[in-house]
């Protein structure tokens, strides 16, 4: 009904106001209309033919000649219309034929009723009624045809006779009939159209329903996300195409297979259903499923519970997040792992350590950390190339990983530093034996190309609850223990003790002070002469560092040993010394003072720097000092340190450039005679501990004599240190020792006193 109200009808006529709608109505009824009019025309043809026979009764009457042609005319037009109607394809065509038939029939019958036969009056009233009620033309033409027919018939009936007493009554009856029929037609039209509109609306609604259902079905089927509808017990009810493709479900198995089968962990479906029952909807349930080909995929499942005809169904959508998870994993790995070894990096190590410490505190268990530093990485890098260095790092990482359990963490902190976090109730003592195992495992040689490599490491060990609880502090403890392991000669494991921290802190303070002293020029060289034992002439000087401390006064190296032992500080102080020594030599030469050869001391730590010799040579050149004016004093320990390969190169560079090399403190270290042969040593300096009590200690006398003989036989110059008495000098001279150095001749002196000393010495020798 709402459709007719949206398509209103004309009040008079009952047709659709909208011409388009009316045309649609007529068009839809056209087959029916055509069938109807064909029957109408046929009936008209047959009935009028029968009436033609009945009209024969007028034979002999003048009306006969009016009636027969009129009747023949009607029959002829009716037959013509029957014939023409087959070509009618529109309502308009049909209507034109109906009007033609109506006009012809009305005219013919108008002649016929002039006979005033018994039937005439009946026909006058019948025919317009037929036009109104039987001929389905539009309302406009129905009224036109009805009224025209009425006028023609009234005319035919009334005109031949004058002053018929029933004339007015007949006209009024005809008008009444027309009006009544107009109302009947209007009502009939209205009913027909209302009914049609209602059917039409119902059909449209049904069509729309069918269409929307088809659309939803297509959408469901073609949504690119796998959708599954299952019963609460898990049986699959339906799936869309994406689900069939994704899961590899055979459509025939729907109704047999269970949704639970796809879950890698069957309990996951139960958890999913629990959540669904709790919240009515699950938006992102992460799980792993197994596809038909057996591959495992990470997915997010969203689910909704739907009720259809009293039964509950689970509607689930599946989004594959395998690639996304893999990408996330890659990003996470890149951010938290070391790219070379694949081990966790410092960031991840810190969070694991935090976690391990928190757990240990909760459970009353232990955590140990082993800070592993590869002693020989730098050497491997410098001598065999970075490829070999990388191989050593990777091998170290692998061995550590293999040694440790899944629950432990092996991380690379950067450079040559690795760390192991051992969780479990292991005591510090056990951690130390683990560290020893690590050392021997790393030491085991392996091949890299043509080279054979092995890892030498120092390990610092610290643990909770023995040491600190805070991760940063515990790592610092391990770092201090590592520092101690290195200081004790590397290639060992040392456990942290609280006094290490104190010592290190002291050392750090001293280190800061020394740097400041260098900056302020408080560290200067003092010079101690070396004298020819035979001629008494000065052959050269040894430069010895002195610190003019603003508060503690004049300090000798014993008070600031860190300056020579610390890897970085020793380079700074060493460079500071050689610059001053080179400057002093230049000044002496400029003043015409022959200072001989000046020796500077080099500590083992300085040899860690591969560019040491080159820098010294450059500094001499900058200062304009010939290389022959310099000598370097090294102690035997340089041959034993981890930078011994640098030592070979550096000594060769010194030697080749004309700088002499003296082996200092000879006899106190661990140098083997091999070193004397292998390295380009020019002078041997007998340590003062052997010289001090030479006169009384026969063992020392024997050692000194042996060293002098060794030096002579190897063609080396032997210098005795710490000569304090004339007796000592005499002993040395008599045994063939060439030179001596000691307080007997002069204590170390500042640069300004050297000229005066030389003058006095020359005067004495003259
Ligand atoms: P060293 O190279 O063996 O120097 C000789 C040390 O013996 C000097 O001590 C010197 O003052 C001392 N000495 C010389 N003659 C006598 C004597 O007759 N009696 C006694 N009792 N001592 C004598 P100093 O200057 O305290 O130096 C100690 C050590 O410090 C040096 O031993 C050297 O190894 C190191 N050193 C000094 N200056 C430097 C430097 O600039 N660089 C480096 N790397 N080490 C240095
Ligand atoms: Mg020396
Ligand atoms: Mg010495």
Write up this protein.
- With 766 residues, the chain is α/β, with parallel strands linked by helices.
- It has four domains: 3-202, no CATH class; 227-320, PAS domain (Beta-Lactamase, 2-Layer Sandwich); 331-496, Alpha-Beta Plaits (2-Layer Sandwich); 507-761, Alpha-Beta Barrel (TIM Barrel), CATH 3.20.20.
- 54% of the residues lie in helices and 17% in strands.
- It contains 25 helices and 21 strands.
- An eight-stranded mixed β-barrel has the order 13-14-16-17-18-19-20-21, surrounded by six helices. The protein has a five-stranded antiparallel sheet with strand order 2-1-5-4-3, with helices on both faces. It has a five-stranded mixed sheet with strand order 7-8-6-11-12, with helices on both faces.
- Helix 24 (726-735) links the parallel strand 20 (717-720) and strand 21.
- Helix 5 runs antiparallel to helix 6 (139-158).
- The radius of gyration is 62 Å and the shape is rod-shaped.
- The mean pLDDT is 91.
Fold topology:
Layout: H1 2-6, H2 19-54, H3 64-84, H4 91-113, H5 120-133, H6 139-158, H7 167-222, E1 227-231, E2 236-239, H8 241-247, H9 267-279, E3 281-290, E4 296-308, E5 311-320, H10 322-336, H11 346-363, E6 367-374, H12 377-384, H13 386-403, E7 409-414, E8 417-423, H14 428-443, E9 446-448, E10 451-453, E11 457-464, H15 471-487, E12 493-495, H16 498-520, E13 523-532, E14 538-549, E15 553-555, H17 562-565, H18 567-590, E16 597-601, H19 612-623, E17 630-635, H20 644-656, E18 660-666, H21 673-678, E19 683-686, H22 688-691, H23 698-713, E20 717-720, H24 726-735, E21 739-740, H25 751-765
Parallel strand pairs: 11-12, 14-16, 16-17, 17-18, 18-19, 19-20, 20-21
Antiparallel strand pairs: 1-2, 1-5, 3-4, 4-5, 6-8, 6-11, 7-8, 9-10, 13-14, 13-21, 14-15
Bound molecules: ligand C2E and magnesium ion (2 copies).
Ligand C2E is lined by residues 528, 544-545, 556-558, 564, 577, 601-603, 633, 664-665, 688, 721-722, 724, 741-743, 748.
């Amino acid at each position: 009904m709402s459709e007719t109200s949206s398509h209103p009808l004309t009040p008079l006529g009952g047709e659709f106001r909208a011409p388009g709608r009316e045309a649609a109505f007529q068009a839809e009824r056209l087959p029916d209309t055509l069938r109807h009019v064909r029957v109408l025309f046929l009936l008209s043809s047959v009935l009028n033919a029968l009436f033609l026979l009945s009209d024969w009764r007028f034979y002999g009457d003048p009306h006969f000649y009016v009636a027969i042609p009129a009747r023949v005319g009607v029959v002829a037009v009716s037959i013509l219309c029957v014939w023409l109607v087959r070509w009618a394809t529109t309502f308009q065509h049909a209507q034109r034929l109906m009007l033609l038939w109506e006009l012809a029939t009305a005219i013919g019958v108008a002649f016929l009723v002039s006979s005033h036969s018994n039937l005439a009056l009946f026909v006058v009233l019948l025919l317009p009624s037929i036009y109104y009620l039987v001929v389905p033309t539009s309302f406009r033409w129905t009224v036109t045809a009805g009224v025209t027919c009425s006028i023609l018939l009234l005319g035919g009936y009334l005109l031949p006779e004058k002053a018929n007493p029933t004339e007015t009554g007949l006209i009024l009856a005809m008008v009444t009939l027309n009006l009544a029929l107009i109302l009947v037609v209007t009502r009939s039209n209205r009913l027909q159209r209302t009914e049609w509109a209602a059917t039409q609306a119902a059909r449209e609604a049904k069509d729309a329903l069918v269409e929307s259902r088809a659309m939803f079905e297509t959408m469901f089927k073609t949504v690119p996300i796998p959708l599954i509808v299952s019963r609460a017990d898990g049986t699959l009810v339906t799936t869309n195409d994406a689900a069939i493709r994704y899961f590899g479900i055979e459509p025939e198995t729907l109704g047999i297979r269970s949704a639970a089968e796809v879950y890698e962990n069957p309990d996951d479906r139960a958890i999913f259903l629990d959540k669904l029952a709790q919240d009515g909807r699950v938006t992102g349930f992460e799980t792993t499923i197994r596809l038909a080909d057996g591959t495992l995929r990470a997915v997010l499942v969203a689910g909704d519970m739907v009720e259809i005809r009293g039964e509950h169904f689970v509607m689930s959508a599946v989004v594959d997040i395998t690639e996304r998870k893999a990408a996330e994993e890659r990003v996470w790995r890149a951010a938290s792992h070391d790219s070379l070894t694949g081990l966790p990096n410092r960031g991840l190590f810190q969070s694991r350590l935090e976690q391990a410490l928190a757990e240990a505190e909760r459970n009353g268990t232990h955590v140990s950390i082993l800070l592993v530093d590869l002693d020989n990485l730098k050497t491997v890098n410098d001598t065999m190339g970075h490829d070999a260095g990388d191989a050593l790092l990777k091998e170290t990482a692998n061995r550590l990983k293999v040694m440790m359990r899944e629950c432990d963490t092996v991380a690379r902190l950067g450079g040559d530093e690795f760390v192991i976090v051992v969780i479990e109730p292991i005591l510090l003592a056990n951690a130390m034996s683990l560290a020893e195992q690590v050392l021997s495992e790393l030491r085991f040689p392996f091949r890299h190309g043509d080279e054979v490599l092995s890892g030498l490491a120092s390990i610092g060990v610290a643990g909770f609850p023995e040491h600190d609880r805070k991760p940063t502090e515990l790592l610092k403890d391990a770092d201090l223990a590592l520092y101690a392991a290195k200081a004790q000669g590397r290639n060992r494991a040392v456990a942290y003790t609280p006094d290490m921290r104190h010592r290190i802190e002291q050392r750090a303070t001293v280190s800061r002070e020394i740097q400041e002293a260098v900056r302020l020029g408080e560290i200067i060289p003092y010079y101690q002469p070396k004298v020819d034992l035979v001629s008494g002439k000065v052959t050269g000087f040894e430069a010895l560092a002195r610190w003019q401390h603003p508060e503690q006064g004049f300090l000798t190296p014993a008070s600031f040993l860190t300056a020579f032992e610390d890897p970085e500080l020793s380079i700074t102080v060493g460079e500071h010394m050689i610059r001053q020594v080179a400057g002093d030599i230049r000044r002496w030469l400029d003043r015409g003072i022959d200072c001989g050869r000046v020796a500077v001391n080099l500590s083992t730590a300085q040899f860690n720097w591969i560019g040491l010799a080159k820098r010294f040579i450059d500094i001499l050149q900058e200062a304009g000092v010939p290389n022959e004016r310099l000598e370097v004093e090294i102690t035997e320990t340089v041959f034993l340190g981890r930078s011994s390969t640098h030592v070979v190169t550096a000594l060769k560079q010194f030697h080749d450039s004309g700088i002499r090399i003296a082996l200092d403190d000879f006899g106190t270290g661990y140098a083997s005679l091999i070193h004397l042969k292998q390295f380009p040593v020019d002078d041997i300096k007998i340590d003062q501990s052997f010289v001090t009590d030479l006169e009384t200690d026969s063992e020392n006398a024997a050692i000194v004599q042996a060293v002098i003989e060794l030096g002579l036989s190897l063609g080396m110059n032997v210098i005795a240190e710490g000569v304090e008495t004339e007796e000592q000098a005499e002993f040395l001279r008599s045994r063939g020792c060439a030179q001596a150095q000691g307080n007997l001749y002069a204590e170390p002196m500042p640069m300004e006193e050297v000229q005066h000393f030389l003058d006095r010495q020359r005067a004495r020798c003259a």
